[in-house]
Write a structure and sequence with these properties.
The protein is an alpha+beta fold. The chain contains one helix and six strands. It has one helix spanning 18-29, and strands at residues 4-9, 12-15, 33-38, 41-46, 51-54, 57-64. InterPro entries: WWE_dom_sf.
């Protein structure tokens, strides 16, 4: 099973779209942080701290399916 990145939204985990998932996986493999386009907004992703920051919002992220 290929790795899949998800983010917390209330009591649920929501998967990123395929393009964002691919970019986040690239960031993860380089061991860092970076910007990712998610539907509607650009988000700053930290695969080290496992967080996604959007204007006025911080969400927990997780890598699944490993």
């Amino acid at each position: 099973m290929a790795p899949r990145w998800v983010y917390a939204a209330g009591n649920s985990w929501v998967p990123f779209n395929d393009a964002a998932n691919y970019k986040i996986e690239e960031i993860f493999r380089s061991g860092g942080e970076g910007n990712v386009n998610v539907p509607g907004l650009s988000a700053y992703i930290s695969t080290v701290r496992l967080y996604m920051w959007q204007p006025g919002l911080q969400r927990k992220i997780c890598r699944t399916g490993c």
